[in-house]
Amino acid sequence: MSDVVIRAEGLGKQYRIGERQAQYETIRDVLSNAASAVFRQSQNGNKPDETFWALKDVSFEVKRGEVLGVIGRNGAGKSTLLKVLTRITEPTEGYAEIRGRVGSLLEIGTGFHPELTGRDNIYLSGAIMGMKRAEIIRKFDDIIEFAGIERFIDTPVKRYSSGMYTRLAFAVAAHLEPEILLVDEVLAVGDAAFQRKCLGKMSEIAGEGRTVLFVSHNMAAISELCRECMVLESGAVLLIANTDEAILTYLSTDGEVAIDSSIMERQIDHDGSVDFTQALVLDSSGNATRNIHFGEPITIAISFRVNRPLNAVRIGFEIATVTGLAIASSHYPVEEPTYMNYEPGHYTLRAEVEHFLRAGRYVVRVGGHHANAARNGASIGRVMDAAIFDIIPISFESARLAQYENGLIAMFPRWQLLQKAGETLSTSRREQP
Fold first, then answer.
1. Looking at the predicted structure, is the pLDDT value of residue 1 above 90?
2. Is residue 407 part of a domain?
3. Which of 65, 105, 143, 189 would give a disulfide with 166, using CB separation of 3.0 to 4.6 Å?
């Protein structure tokens, strides 16, 4: 028997732009749609319908017990791929097959009936997966404990917050013994502690010989969980390789776009008030660059367009490693609790940063949030990988720091060797380059 449990061959999914999703229709819907079609034809003449390929010629295999990460920009086809694999949508061409019982967590609202309670939905999900009632009962307490919603288990899930819904959905998908687990970026809804629990559970599932397909923009989570990644770009497979190589390829491709053109299409948590249009890393001469010499100050320039009057907001950036680990952040204005008001128009913020980053590759995230406590610091938008830059060694010493010393920043301590009596035997100090 083959160890391949997920196989896709020449998989493609085409959508017609503006086409309504198929659904049960009333007579009124049929007449309305027919009239709309006649109107569109009169407006467009014989102009052919516009289409696009969300997936195009995607082929890959996943063996039993493997954890495959799927990464790519927004719109690359990641979620569409999972929907095809779970039979939520049919492919336009090619085929995909899965051998085994599947647990999936694709997006909030998938799989649960909003009118049923959390308890009822657990039993319903288990039945859909083909589990016997005794098996579900055996796992029930573990699911409730993991999700942390004991008080609300008999409340209809339509009254759950997005975080509660996600916690229960993941607990059900992970604990009802799926042979294959498909997880989308929906985990970002949970808090940091719950995300850590989810990653631990997925590692446990993989360690038991089961298979995980993990879609995420969190490079730290991808790096921790996956040995191999597939990079999607415009619906096609750009690369399937070990995780480090895949992440660098994804960030390098994404970084070129971030430096030279708009980043608007990659915004998340976007409320429409602000469009981030560009993020640049500038050298000491004010030129946009990908390469910063070790110890050289850098300038982060954030350009954005305010679409409507905006009160009490802060906009800033975060520097992170390529695996997603945040190093430092700053917002304008820096004084607490000061916030800015903006009239509609175009703006650019610049921040000069002195740093001790070791040689290596880093990413810049940009974003902003409201100050109003009633809005709970709601985001006005974020771009996770807005720009990318490399710290380049300028000497043997800085290169050695990158190669042999641990940590994210370079330090220049002064050491002393003392005897018990306090006598200084020797001193050693690393000078800044």
1. no
2. no
3. 189
